[in-house]
Amino acid sequence: MKIYSMVFAAIIFGSCSNTTQEDGNATSEKDVVETELVSEPILAMFGNEITEDGAVLAADVLAQLNGADSIKTKLSGPILKVCQAKGCWMIMQVSDEQNMHVSFKDYGYFVPKDIDGKESIIEGYAYMETMSVDDLKHYAEDAGKSQEEIDAITEPETKLSFVADGVIVKDYEVASAE
User: Does 43-170 carry CATH code 2.40.50?
Assistant: First the structure.
């Protein structure tokens, strides 16, 4: 009777610690638990709730504009710089030669100041904008440029700009207020 009990226990223990994958190979319970712990990527959202669906690379925005005054679009690209005063604007890389100034709809939300280098999705309106000398100096000040660099700004500049209704920052978790 003891032998039957031990065999029965071995069968039960064996069935708990091994599972069979579709390819017929056995995996341990530890492997199954580790697989179950894999979670969705961390996405932080700001402004209106948006999704990643339909986002195109920021590098495609100039082709999308194609002479239009503005376009509604959803873009994906890296954040190069964020306003260090409040997080009230950011610079997104479009190409090696071009960046895009991103502001937030109605100045209604801000993004964290520590997201430089993160991938993001933005949805809103892209357009070409001629920025005044005063605005360029203000943004240079917010970016922490030296007084010498700020004083060197003497002419308006036409830049690619974007007003975002919503922003997703990938691989960023907003710290909880405890």
Answer: yes
Residues of the chain with CATH 2.40.50: 43-170
In tens, the pLDDT along 90-138 reads 999 999 999 999 999 999 999 999 999 999 999 999 999 998 999 999 8
Q: What is the pLDDT of residues 24-50, one digit of tens each?
A: 555 444 444 454 555 667 899 999 999
DSSP letters for the chain? -HHHHHHHHHHHHHHHHEEE-TTS-EEEHHHHHHHHH--PPPEEEEES---STT-EEGGGHHHHHTT-SEEEEEEEEEEEEE-TTTS-EEEEE-SSS-EEEEEEGGG-----TT-TT-EEEEEEEEEEEEE-HHHHHHHHHHTT--HHHHHT--S-EEEEEEEEEEEEEET--PPP--
